[in-house]
Structure formats: C-alpha cells, structure tokens
Design goal:
About 70% of the residues lie in helices and about 0% in strands. By secondary structure, it is mostly helical. It has a single domain, classed as Orthogonal Bundle (Farnesyl Diphosphate Synthase). A hairpin with a 2-residue loop joins β1 and β2. α8 packs antiparallel against α9 and α10 runs antiparallel to α14. The longest helix has 28 residues. The protein starts with a helix and ends with a helix.
Length: about 290
Amino acid sequence: MPRMMSDALRQYRARIDQKLDRFLTRTDFPPQLLEAMRYAVFNGGKRIRPTLVYLATEALGKPLSQADSTACAVEFIHAYSLIHDDLPAMDDDDLRRGKPTCHIQFNEATAILAGDALQALAFETIAADETIPVHIRLALIQHFAAAAGGSGMVGGQAIDLASEQIEIDAKTLEHMHRRKTGDLIAASVVAGALLANAAPDITRALADFGYALGLAFQIKDDILDEIGNTEVIGKRAGSDASLRKSTFVSVHGLNEATAQLDDQRLVAVAALAPLGAQGAGLVAMAEFVTNRDH
C-alpha cells in the first residue's frame, strides 16, 4: 500500500507542480520576491495537502480539473507557513527539505515578504477561478482562512512557541497539533467535499479522517525527529529536543507514540467507511503517512 501511494503521489505531484508553476510565472512581482516564492514552493515538498484535495474530489466523482486552483492554494498556504516557521523569531531552522531555508538562501526580510505574498496568492487563486461557482469559491475562502488563522494553524504555532522550555500535558499537546497541523490537513480533505457539494454526513466523515490523519502526520514527524536521519528527513534531527519542545515522543515516550500513530491511522481509515470503495485513495494516503521515512 505505501508503494502504491508513493507512485500515486508522483502522479499528483507532477500535476500540481505544473499548475503551481503557472501561478508563479508572474511579471508583476518584483524579481527577487518571485524567486524567493518559487524557491519555497519548488524545494522538494511531498505535496500531501494538494494531493488530499485531489483525492477527496476524485472520491466524490468530480474531475481533477475542478480542484486545481484549490490544490494550488493550499500548497501556497503551507509553503508560506514553513517560511515563517523557519524564521529566527520562530523555530530558527537553517535547513528545510535538505536545502537552506528561505531566510538563509535570501535574507530575513525577503523571506517574510515571500511568505506574505504566498498567503495572499492562495486566496487570489481561489477567488479568480471562474470555473467554480461563486458561492463555492466564497465557502472555500472562508474555510481556508479559518483553518490557517488564529483559531487554526497560526493559533497552533502561537501555542507551540509559548510552550517552548516548559512541559505541557498530553491534552494541550494534542490541541496544539490539532490546530497547527490538523486544521490545514483536514481543510484540504474537506475542500474536496465543498467542491463536490457533498452531503453533510460525507463532509463530516472527511473532516474526521483529516483530523486523524493530521495527528498521525504530526506523531510521525515527532518520531522521525527522534530517530530519523538528517539526510533522509531533510531537516536537522533532534531539533525539537534542542529547543526543549514538547512532542508526542517527549510526553508519551517512543513506544506509546508509535502506538498512538497506529491508533490514529485506524481512526482515519474507519472514518472513511461511508465512502466505501471510493475512499481507497485516501486509505492509501493514511498508510503512506504512517509508514513514510521523511
């Protein structure tokens, strides 16, 4: 199953990279700003979030072409968040996906502006897609704004920063990562339901899948930070421990974190029951996230 998803990821990645390139070929952006934006977007990401948009849209019987702009938008949001997460005032990382982080490759001011521009471009991309009915575009914009904002991803990052150098309990840890990682992953899956005008029960099932997948993704990241190899995972192994961050491994121990990873995979797969065989691609994604090595 992981091999199948890896092959599928390559196919979806080729498509999303082509679409991303089209949106990032602009003559009205200052050249260095555009270069920094492209550097952040085209630096080897797995494209899991846009792939989730595609998988959910396909599972509900809609063509990939209907999901292209939304898939690009979520990747722009994700790329912006990584630029800002790596900044000296945040996690102060100098390596991302095996390459210098954006502020190291360029400079801190350019990196901040590149992140700002990518966030704005995400919403411009959805708003400008006239192949999507206006009411669905509005719903998508509201949906991603909430997932990425103060009650979502950014709020999770704020909790993360406030939790450095202190011990937090398991409930706070899960809430933090439900916001920081889970909200945007769940939003990517639910976007497919919005594009397909899915029934409420299907939308809820996809949201439940997305949140379980988001936690599984974060638990796996924490495990890889503990036992992974820097050259394989593309960032410095042990960086969380060096910042004295609370992780699923530091709070629960490696064995319990591994058990929770499998529990979240099972929860995610079970949530897809209402989709039947149509959910096979999303099931494969859950297996891939659980078994990846980077």
